[in-house]
């Protein structure tokens, strides 16, 4: 009986020890997550009753999760491949290559991709600006600045 109790205690200690070790381990992060967006948080801009929220994704190519939200405008008619653009470090504006977003009426979100942009150029940019034009107002500008 004492042997069973001892083996049960040893097994419980081993399980608890393994659980604590895993709880303290750093979470696995894809290598490109840090390169592309590890230091970039979510940005939000509201104007003309439309809120634009964007955050950069850890994709092989620069891509952002973009959400448009309003209670007064039908957002399904807005194509961000035509209305959004990206600028790095004050350089030339870059058009997106894809806007993958289902219809949503007043609440629409999807992925805005810049497939023509070299990921290393994006990763080395200090100032990243994403502009959404002509969605209820002439311009909504979201800006990320990396600390160096």
Fold and architecture overview:
The chain is of the alpha+beta class and 148 residues long. Helix content is 27%, strand content 34%. The longest helix is centred in the first third of the chain and has 23 residues, at 2-24. It has one domain: Immunoglobulin-like, CATH 2.60.40. It has a 5-stranded antiparallel sheet with strand order 1-2-3-7-6, with no helix packed on it. A 4-stranded antiparallel sheet has the order 5-4-8-9. It is globular, with a radius of gyration of 22 Å. It is built from 4 helices and 9 strands.
Give the key terms.
148 residues; Immunoglobulin-like; 5-stranded antiparallel beta sheet; 4-stranded antiparallel beta sheet; 4 helices
The neighbouring-strand order within the major sheet is 1-2-3-7-6
Give the name of the CATH architecture: Sandwich
Count of DSSP H/I helices: 4
Global geometry? globular
Mean pLDDT: 80
Set down the secondary structure blueprint.
Elements: H1 2-24, H2 31-37, E1 43-47, E2 50-56, E3 63-70, H3 80-83, E4 84-88, E5 93-94, E6 98-100, E7 107-113, H4 119-124, E8 127-133, E9 139-145
Antiparallel strand pairs: 1-2, 2-3, 3-7, 4-5, 4-8, 6-7, 8-9
Summarize this, please?
It is built from 4 helices and 9 strands; from the N terminus they run H-H-E-E-E-H-E-E-E-E-H-E-E. It has helices at residues 2-24, 31-37, 80-83, 119-124, and strands at 43-47, 50-56, 63-70, 84-88, 93-94, 98-100, 107-113, 127-133, 139-145. It is globular.
